[in-house]
Amino acid sequence: MNTSLSQNIFSAAQALMPGGVSSPVRAFKSVGGQPIVFDRVKGPYAWDVDGNRFIDYVGSWGPAICGHAHPEVTASLQEALEKGTSFGAPCQLENKLAEMVIDAVPSVEMVRFVNSGTEACMAVLRLMRAYTGRDKVIKFEGCYHGHADMFLVKAGSGVATLGLPDSPGVPRSTTANTLTAPYNDLEAVKELFAENPDAISGVILEPVVGNAGFITPEPGFLEGLRELTKENGALLVFDEVMTGFRISYGGAQARFGVTPDLTTLGKVIGGGLPVGAYGGSTEIMSMVAPAGPMYQAGTLSGNPLAMTAGIKTLELLRQDGTYEKLEATTKKLFEGILQSAKDSGIPITGSSISAMFGFYLCEGPVRNFEEAKATNTELFGKLHRAMLERGVYLAPSAFEAGFTSLAHSEDDINATLKAFQESFAEIQK
Ligand code: HOZ
Predict the structure, then answer these.
(1) 239 catalytic, yes or no?
(2) Rounded CA gap, 341 and 425, in Å?
(3) What is the CATH number of the domain that holds 203?
(4) From the CB of 25, is ligand 1 less than 6 Å away?
(5) Is the Cβ–Cβ distance between 228 and 261 less than 8 Å?
(6) Whether residue 267 lies in the annotated active site
(7) Can you tell me which atom of ligand 1 is nearest the CA of 400?
(8) How many Å apart are CA 243 and CA 150, to the nearest integer?
(9) What total number of domains does the chain contain?
(10) Is the per-residue pLDDT at 164 higher than 80?
């Protein structure tokens, strides 16, 4: 595979941007080699600047659930573009997307649009504290809620990928209010509540973890958190930036039947444009300015292009059979991956739900981040390179979930599984 143009561009980028990138994980640091520089994307594919084509299981880290640049999404964007790129004033498109989100997501009666998942989580944290009058928050090891100060404690995603200690620049006084527990461990949460009476504003989590690989909630875990938060006068917050409209149309909360007090969203609801959102009951959301005193604002929030792409994406997703198709595609892919690793004698464990999957190159089970760390990251790096050589683009980290889309055809899955079979055979030597 010739990647000379990618290499030249990435080398030049080193002097222009820290690490040559705009976001850390994409720099390939944990898998070795140089990143592929993308030129264009369409459906399930990405093409690099050297003209190589890849079947893509990153999907821009989640938004591309209908496939990249879906023709209906791009057509509505072209139409919207004629009316301008940013209003900084109310627009009807916000009402439409808000109605769609409220209809779909059980916990959301009112929503505020922002520009990224990080921004949504940052704002929800302030809202948790404003509503309860308490400063502390419980998060789980390996869960990632963006890069706001209070969340950079035992975080997943790039922090886990690069094995970084908690970030310099984050004041100790800030993180003193962040309490952590292992995911899937209700007893640990119970203890934190007992040790900090009337001080914890709430519990925030990825209801299915996608930033520490892919970890699913054990039966009773989400239900248990719902009870514990209620008992302790604290809020339950689901960060559904990854899982929203992906684990099901109503997110993980609809799929698992547990309704949090607040929810954050991003990725899919922007159809590939920068977006985020947070929402909950009318009572809690009425705290947000200008309805209430909790301040939060944004010049580009509710951007008409982002709203347009989000609306069209949700319209495509709510068609009959969509999630059945996503589930079947992902299941076939995931089971094939497990089988080919086993055929090569490589230990593997993992899971898939709807349009998300993940695997660890170790014996299972993986129920929390500590157990996830048993994965063989060196072997994963080799696998990543072998798959790339065969035209398959996996997340360049052993600690990021994989994403499928409606555009991945049976042929794409078969070609991917052939690549896995060959790659596992190659790397076990
Ligand atoms: N935080 C995202 C992954 N969970 C984005 C990573 C990237 O774009 O580098």
Answers:
(1) yes
(2) 8
(3) 3.40.640.10
(4) yes
(5) no
(6) yes
(7) 4
(8) 22
(9) 1
(10) no
